[in-house]
Structures
1.
Amino acid sequence: MRRHTRRVYNLCYRFTGHPHEAEDLTQEVFLRVYRTLASYKAIHGGFTTWMTSVTRNLLIDHYRRTKKDRVTSSLNEEATMAKLEEKASSTRRPDQIAVAGELSMQVQHALGRLSPDLREAVILRDLQGLDYREIQDVLEVPEGTVKSRINRGRIELARLLEQMGVRRE
């Protein structure tokens, strides 16, 4: 469980944008994994890929349940995430930490504006580091669709970040 907690939490956080919600969803994922562990078959792919599929399915269920209640992240939650990132890299200078925290909040905000299909493809590839085959298994779509969603998601994310004043260096 400890080996996969960070990956599952990061996926939940990047999808929801809310740290407390991501923590709750991470717990739900591990409960669901425990309950459905007997359905895991190594022949169908690696355990990490299977766990990512379980996480994705739970996030879809959560998205559908909360569709009507969805609101943007509060400043308090964004400040909490900035503090976590600050803790994670104490070797950086304060100005670097502040810039990284601000950039992370902007990326999270832009990710929240992507469609769910594009968001999950970009998160799985660029933030979780899954390869195309693993993403294909998780999303249960053809490889061409995976590549298309990643490409469109990156383009849309770049456009949104540029609108927000974030420039490439």
2.
Amino acid sequence: MVNLILCGGSGTRLWPLSRKKTPKQFARIFRDRSLFEEVLVRNRPLCNRFVVATNVEHLSLVESQMVRMGIERVEGLLEPMGRNTAPAIALILLGLPREELVLVSPSDHRITKHDRYAEAVRRAARLAEQGFLVTFGITPQYAETGYGYIEADGENVLSFREKPDRTTAEAYLASGRYYWNSGMFVFSAGTLLDELSRCAPEVFDAAQRTYARAEKGNLLRPRPEDMATIPSISIDYAVMEKSKRVKVVACDPGWSDLGSFDALYDETRGDAENAALADDATFLNSRRCLVVGGEKPIILEGVEDLIVVQTDDTTLIMRRGQSQNVRDVLKVVAERRPDLL
């Protein structure tokens, strides 16, 4: 089985920890390994080959971190521009044998229960060998409004749902029939390409033309003018929501997409009241706070529900529970200090 790792995300919701030149999948948020390196580690026992979809700006990060994990050769797709996940996956699959099983992994998610994860991947592989497109449904822990959902009856997918409002998310949780959409998949190269051709022929045809004219090698290098002709669309919209060959494997592998500092707080604090990803953080009479920092000491006294993120050039302080407002911060930063992006 091949592990196809999608490395195109920018990780702006974790600014200033994540930047354009070092998005969150390559940042060592948890000190010892980056999220990208964690993908390599957990999938090495399950896959015999890694391929990546990345861009020119981040190729050196991919290369250096793969070497650090003992993988000398980088293979996959070097995108001249981002066109979302369906084109990236299609271009890589066009270069694989039709019968090859492919595990698609976002590069910026965290998984902590590796045994449960491995069990789910093996089950997904068995279903993929039978000609199904398999997605992973994460057993919801609470009524999350920031994720898409999968409605299922056993392993049969009934529907895909957009990010819900609070009332709808609570109804999903209570029903027991809905799972968080993880964005991870297993399928054979031939099955996915056949379904892409049927469900989104304009994407498939443009990807075929682009692949035929691209420079071949360890890294496929499409021409920018060809890449621009492929519709920008996710694999969910292009195929998974339309196909009748989709199955879901429900699992609870300790998954988080770390899509906000609030998610990072939940991931980090464990049973403690405060959470720290810093060399020197002190909490005095403070509760429910997250500190992310570098070498400088950070001391909080008499405060509650704060997020403090310190880097070499920036300090961000915001109210916990409102970390989605980073996007508003970025608008101001783009106007006043674009160098900090």
3.
Amino acid sequence: MYKTLYSKGNKAFLELLTQSRLDAGLTQVELALRLQEDQSLISKVERGVRRLDVVELMLWCQALEMPLTEFVRRLEASSVLVDEHTRMG
């Protein structure tokens, strides 16, 4: 498996996290309050400094009132991921 930290797929993931928050009409502070975290965590995640595990992503989506399946559907719809996956195979 190749490293994903600086991949186009990870960039798409981070952009979707940020856009999903904006679409929900939330600031980083408001999302942090919903997650009972500091705003700095939200910033670090959105900038790619701190990664989310699957359980954290589920909580993040719940705080955005977005089903995890919808988030994954949007991520899978990204042609970037399709292109990278095709290259791997």
